[in-house]
Design brief:
3-stranded antiparallel sheet, alpha/beta, binds S-adenosylmethionine, 7-stranded mixed sheet, about 30% helix
Length: about 270
């Protein structure tokens, strides 16, 4: 792949101009690619879903591993490029789709069968993770390149300055492990933020279980929408003070001082 001005020359003679709206920062650094593939450790028994294959930096080695590979790419030109390059077979499919509207259940109905990977478009990385977590039962693990700052938010614990909705919901469903960082010089064009690799592994059994996870999400979202307020003021719209005062939780605390278990207690008190 050769870069000419802002265009990238693809192997089939086509050129591609990276599209900012699709968060396109392409990996070109062979060492970084090898390190990511080592972390994924693909083999022919795996069923892998790659989000945003781009022009195939990770797709190539994933394909070569013999794994069953499904790719979801929103960019029409790149989806065509990837489809032409790898063909359509029992073991390889490319869907020209928006991952935010893509139903993972189309690919597998069996629990813990899908491995989801990708160098995610940073502009939509949080919504992508929330979307995938809706199907957490189907997922064996997820290995993503993300902005380091997003990984720090995901792995923060109670009391940390980055602790919030993303930390709580990611940890409700998954073990979160920050693996390593990737320098900006590994991409074309270079992103302005630091990038890193994270592994999200859905829990075998949820450590705490809410009666209604969508109620839990709503309580957490409402609390953190007014981060500076103490609980009894920020949660007024979702739970009455009389219910809240009856729970084993100090209602004068701020949202960042409550554990996941505390939020589950509040959510369960209002979801019946
Ligand atoms: N995997 C390639 C690499 O590492 O060089 C490309 C990574 S680039 C950061 C993100 C990729 O996700 C691009 O190919 C982009 O077109 C694709 N993408 C962006 N938004 C998407 C969406 N909503 N659904 C599916 N793919 C998307």
């Amino acid at each position: 792949m050769k870069r000419e001005s802002s265009f990238i020359k693809l192997a089939n003679g086509l050129t591609h101009q990276p599209r900012k709206r699709f968060g396109q920062n392409f990996l070109h650094d062979e060492n970084a690619i090898e390190k990511i593939i080592d972390a994924i450790s693909p083999c022919k028994e795996h069923h892998i879903v790659e989000i945003g294959p781009g022009y195939g930096a990770l797709t190539n080695p994933l394909f070569k591993s013999g794994a069953k590979l499904d790719c979801v790419e929103i960019d029409q030109d790149l989806a065509k490029f990837i489809g032409d390059k790898f063909g359509n077979s029992k073991n390889f499919q490319v869907f020209q789709k928006d991952i935010l509207k893509f139903d993972l259940a189309l690919l597998s109905k069996k629990e813990k069968t899908l491995r989801i990977v990708g160098n995610l478009p940073y502009n939509i990385s949080t919504p992508v993770i929330f979307h995938l977590l809706k199907n957490h039962l189907l997922i064996a693990d997820m290995i993503f390149m993300l902005q380091l700052e997003v990984i720090q938010r995901m792995s923060s614990t109670v009391g940390d300055k980055n602790y919030g909705r993303l930390s709580l919901m990611a940890q409700y469903y998954c073990e979160v492990e920050h693996l390593f960082n990737i320098p900006s010089s590994s991409f074309t064009p270079k992103p302005k933020v630091v990038s890193a690799i994270v592994r999200l592994k859905p829990h075998q059994k949820l450590p705490v279980k809410a009666k209604d996870p969508s109620c839990l999400q709503n309580v957490i979202r409402t609390a953190f929408n007014q981060r500076r307020k103490i609980l009894k003021n920020s949660l007024k719209t979702v739970v009455s003070n009389s219910i809240l005062e009856g729970l084993p939780i100090d209602t004068n605390l701020r949202p960042e001082n409550l554990s996941l278990n505390d939020y589950v207690i509040i959510s369960d008190a209002i979801s019946g």
